[in-house]
């Protein structure tokens, strides 16, 4: 189901799409053309193209709202989504054609927009896109790890203190409460902090044990990519470490030539030097 926040964005995109729709899509989408004329383009980057589903939502929303004036917008969107699922391929085709046309419009507008950018602006946009992608990937990986049951990280002494006293902390919002807790933590004596330090140490033991079991389970599932690198080295290079130790010990074993050289009498060495 499409997010509600996309509806207003989609309406602007569809306004530029309806004028170039095919003959079959114009007939189906003509009912929303007047409502789209009030949207105008901006000097910024082009808006992303509408999907076929969003085209259908924009057409059906005023109709369903008129038929159900007392229904919440969330329920309206849910009803439209159910209607979309029941449409036949022929009924969906006009909206799919409108979406394809809007995609072509977006491609042309994007090329035009990018050609007007300075190198510095293009680099800044690329960097921002990279940061958004990293954030999205990190969020996706976090959800995956949570679904796989990865243990929660060990808490610090302050985190233990904060969790215990957060409800009673001063402040009307989260930031104010955190600031108040940080001030209270700084005012504690070392002996008072020691209780939370010990709890944090116990939590480290808990985390270490749970992570060991979890990583063994991930290895059994074939997800070695989720195992920490240091754990891989500790298990994967154990044999190499033993071999290197044997090699070092072997090098320390004196050979026959070394023994003979060390046990050679000093007089014989002096004689050899004189003869040379």
From TrEMBL:
Its main location: mitochondrion. It comes from the Eukaryota. It holds the Pfam family HMG_box. Transmembrane segments: none annotated. CDD domains: HMG-box_TFAM_rpt2 (cd21987). Keywords: Activator, Coiled coil, DNA-binding, Mitochondrion, Mitochondrion nucleoid, Nucleus, Phosphoprotein, Repeat, Signal, Transcription, Transcription regulation, Transit peptide. Residues 197-224 form a coiled coil. GO terms for biological process: regulation of transcription by RNA polymerase II. Residues 1-19 form the signal peptide. Residues 46-114, 151-215 bind DNA. GO terms for molecular function: DNA binding. It is found in: Mitochondrion matrix, Mitochondrion nucleoid. The keyword Hydrolase does not apply. InterPro entries: HMG_box_dom, HMG_box_dom_sf, HMGB. Residues 228-241, 248-260 have a biased composition (Basic and acidic residues). Residues 46-114, 151-215 form the HMG box domain. Residues 228-276 are annotated as: Disordered. GO terms for cellular component: mitochondrial nucleoid; nucleus. Binds to the mitochondrial light strand promoter and functions in mitochondrial transcription regulation. Component of the mitochondrial transcription initiation complex, composed at least of TFB2M, TFAM and POLRMT that is required for basal transcription of mitochondrial DNA. In this complex, TFAM recruits POLRMT to a specific promoter whereas TFB2M induces structural changes in POLRMT to enable promoter opening and trapping of the DNA non-template strand. Required for accurate and efficient promoter recognition by the mitochondrial RNA polymerase. PANTHER family: HIGH MOBILITY GROUP PROTEIN DSP1, TRANSCRIPTION FACTOR A, MITOCHONDRIAL. Monomer; binds DNA as a monomer. Homodimer. Component of the mitochondrial transcription initiation complex, composed at least of TFB2M, TFAM and POLRMT. In this complex TFAM recruits POLRMT to the promoter whereas TFB2M induces structural changes in POLRMT to enable promoter opening and trapping of the DNA non-template strand. Upon metabolic stress, forms a complex composed of FOXO3, SIRT3, TFAM and POLRMT. Interacts with TFB1M and TFB2M. Interacts with CLPX; this enhances DNA-binding. This is Transcription factor A, mitochondrial.
């Amino acid at each position: 189901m499409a997010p509600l926040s996309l509806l207003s964005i989609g309406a602007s995109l569809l306004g530029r799409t309806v004028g170039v729709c095919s003959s079959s899509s114009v007939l189906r989408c003509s009912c929303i053309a007047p409502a789209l004329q009030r949207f105008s383009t901006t000097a910024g980057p082009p808006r992303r193209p509408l999907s076929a589903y969003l085209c259908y939502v924009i057409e059906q929303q005023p109709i369903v709202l008129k038929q159900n004036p007392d229904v919440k917008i969330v329920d309206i969107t849910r009803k439209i989504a159910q209607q979309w699922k029941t449409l036949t391929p022929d009924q969906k085709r006009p909206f799919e054609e409108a979406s394809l046309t809007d995609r072509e419009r977006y491609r042309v507008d994007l090329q035009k927009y990018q050609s007007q950018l300075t190198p510095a602006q293009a680099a800044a946009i690329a960097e921002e896109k990279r940061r958004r992608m990293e954030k999205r990937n990190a969020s996706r990986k976090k959800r995956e790890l949570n679904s796989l049951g990865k243990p929660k990280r060990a808490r610090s002494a302050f985190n233990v203190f904060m969790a215990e006293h957060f409800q009673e902390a001063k402040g009307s919002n989260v930031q104010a409460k955190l600031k108040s807790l940080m001030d209270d933590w700084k005012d504690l004596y070392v002996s008072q902090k020691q209780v939370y330090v010990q709890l944090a140490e116990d939590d480290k033991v808990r985390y270490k044990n749970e992570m060991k079991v979890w990583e063994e389970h991930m290895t059994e599932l074939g997800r070695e990519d989720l195992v920490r690198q240091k754990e891989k080295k500790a298990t994967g290079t154990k044999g190499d470490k033993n071999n290197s130790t044997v090699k070092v010990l072997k090098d320390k074993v004196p050979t026959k030539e070394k023994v003979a050289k060390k046990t050679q009498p000093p007089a014989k060495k002096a004689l050899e030097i004189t003869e040379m």
